[in-house]
Amino acid sequence: MITIQVNGASRELPEAVPVSTLLTTLGFDGRPVAVAVNHTCVKRSEYPTAVVRDGDDVEILAPMAGG
């Protein structure tokens, strides 16, 4: 098991996973989001290859209507 932080909340995963898999696991697949891992933005084209590992801090931002 690995432990990561997602938007400030601790989450456990069975193993290190690509960003794309994390997004699917969290229900964000197919939705437009911005992702940063350890305060570094991850390009959408890199979601399948950028791996989230134990101890990583992930921020997922989804656009919201209104303002």
Task: Describe what this molecule looks like in 3D.
The chain is mainly β. It has a single domain, classed as Ubiquitin-like (UB roll) (Roll), CATH 3.10.20. The protein has 1 helix and 7 strands, in the order E-E-E-H-E-E-E-E. A 5-stranded mixed sheet has the order 2-1-7-4-5, with no helix packed on it. The protein has a two-stranded antiparallel sheet with strand order 3-6. A hairpin with a 2-residue loop joins strand 1 and strand 2 (9-13). 10% of the residues are buried. The mean pLDDT is 94.
Walk me through the topology.
Elements: E1 2-6, E2 9-13, E3 17-18, H1 19-25, E4 34-37, E5 40-42, E6 51-52, E7 57-61
Parallel strand pairs: 1-7
Antiparallel strand pairs: 1-2, 3-6, 4-5, 4-7
Mean pLDDT: 94
Q: What strand order characterises the main sheet?
A: 2-1-7-4-5
**CATH architectural category:** Roll
Q: Any low-confidence stretches, pLDDT <50, length ≥5?
A: none
Largest sheet geometry: 5 strands, mixed
Q: Looking at the structure, what is the overall shape? A: globular
Task: Name the features.
67 residues, mainly beta, Ubiquitin-like (UB roll), 1 helix, globular
Summed up:
The protein has 67 residues and is mostly beta strands. It is built from one helix and seven strands.
